[in-house]
Amino acid sequence: MRELDLPDLDDLARGAALLGSGGGGDPYIGTLLARAAITRHGPVRVVTVEELPPDALVVPVSMLGAPTVGVEKLPSGKEVHAALRALERVLGRAATHLVAIEIGGGNSMVPVAAAAETGLPLLDADAMGRAFPEAQMVLPTLSGISTTPMTVADDKGNTAVIDAVSNHWAERIARAICGEAGCSVYTADTVLTAAQARDTLVLGTLTLAQRAGATIRLARAGHADPVRAVTDLLGGAVLAAGKVVDVSRATTGGFARGEAVVHGPDGTLVLSFQNEHLVARLADRVVATTPDLICVVDTETGEPVTTEALRYGFRVTVLGLPCDPRWTSPEGLALVGPPAFGYDCGYRPLPS
Amino acid sequence: MRELDLPDLDDLARGAALLGSGGGGDPYIGTLLARAAITRHGPVRVVTVEELPPDALVVPVSMLGAPTVGVEKLPSGKEVHAALRALERVLGRAATHLVAIEIGGGNSMVPVAAAAETGLPLLDADAMGRAFPEAQMVLPTLSGISTTPMTVADDKGNTAVIDAVSNHWAERIARAICGEAGCSVYTADTVLTAAQARDTLVLGTLTLAQRAGATIRLARAGHADPVRAVTDLLGGAVLAAGKVVDVSRATTGGFARGEAVVHGPDGTLVLSFQNEHLVARLADRVVATTPDLICVVDTETGEPVTTEALRYGFRVTVLGLPCDPRWTSPEGLALVGPPAFGYDCGYRPLPS
């Protein structure tokens, strides 16, 4: 058990935004939520999976929606609570631990805020080892664990409890509600026992994100290269560097979809995203694809750049980081490989 | 208490389709459901509001969606059961009586089928005294009764429980799910006590619909004018008669919206509909509007024509029937008057 307190939040948010592969919601709004909650209620207890009692009830809580909307439509702070309470009513049991559904800007901070408010310990793990845009795109799906019962809560006070025949249908129904409710709702879903948490989550990612964020900060403070420092820490590869010369995006179907073009000495890199960066093409050749992490950072400061923050003129470095190995199984690739997002390329392992 | 049995179904469906003001879903598919259920389980007990015990739990069950889709996408028959069971789980109490949310083609028959399957008695009443396209457009809304908890079940086996801050939000969320699930779902909502049922429903409408259907049938059998017979029975007025020369419709936002043009000796009548007929203009003058009933029947046979069945070449008579007087209160008109559907005219009482 360790404590997560106010001074930790910026490092966590920075590192999570990096590992989120450009997605997972805005880190700064998530940080505001977490900061307000910790200020009111005190630090959050972070536990490892080994510390879970056998009868633990681990509940992932998260924001669902288009990040482009999330940065403009602030949560009231009550949504995640409402989603959690609605889920507990359905289960007839209280959550014992919270966990992040994904490591990504905002969605790493949402459970921190909820943990501070509820006093529940937060598990040092997440269900993706990165961020993905859809509710069924979690490792527990590969183990047959149901997304539902899933609860959805909006900023107005509406809630819905979904019971779906498949995890994909849970996503479809939640996304439909999300769209109607203004493209930004909060959810609790994919309830896990202690054993399921141990077997299906990516462990230690909260701590890893915090370390990555600290590494960037410390390198900068020591006048070292923050991009190299964090790439070395995470075992990644630089795919390209250059200047963002074009970004096209549209908020469609509850997602932020688009492409960004980076001009650099190695040629033109095109990033295709759907909330997260999913495919990178350098000089028309695919160099990285989902489920590996494609991370965009400011070349000078090392600060991660989320898909919704990407702008013309940014000088960025694009990193490739290997995903959790379970994602590159045939079942994993069927769920989150490029074709699952409508891209016509297959999975391409990162250059080694 | 009386029994509703197989020979009653055609009259009920015909009369309900008439009173539904062109909407409420396809009467023939509803009849198929009811016929199958009664054949398997025996006749349905129909009770009056006076027969309700004080501790009754009256649950309206219905189809929600676009009638244009409803005629092509048949229900599995399990949806309404799933919606009812999900609602009972949330309430922690079993329904004691079922009731129609609206009098309209299919939605008068859905509770008949559900009553036969569950063995629950069916209350002789409905929540509109006609059909309207949206969930909040019921008389209980005028008395502050909540639509939620509302359950939605689709043909695939998905269910959702909605808890909304207003009846309008319940409709919006249910409609979003409906659209995603294929524009045809089944719902249970607007739960009523015995006292609420007595005070807020339109009483006797199941029996009235059956009588209207029988009147049309008997007039035809006796070579009398079925249109005049049913108009006299219901105290309505003939607005116009003629030939349908144009129908434009689109299935948008989960509704069947459009206009129909009827040419006749009295001039051109334009019917504007959104699942139900809502505004009638004769020679550009508004002659009838929601919430009064605008009913289209085959001029020769007296058979009601639903909005989704309306076709070029049909010879029709358009009737206006007065709505329940509670609908023409200021609150009623705010909820279901022409502006509530986006039409720019005010309510115009029927010619007397």
From TrEMBL, chains A, B:
Pfam families: S-Me-THD_C (PF20906), S-Me-THD_N (PF06032). Residues 8-163 form the S-Me-THD N-terminal domain. Gene3D superfamilies: CV3147-like, CV3147-like domain. Residues 166-350 form the S-Me-THD-like C-terminal domain. This is DUF917 domain-containing protein. It comes from Kutzneria albida DSM 43870.
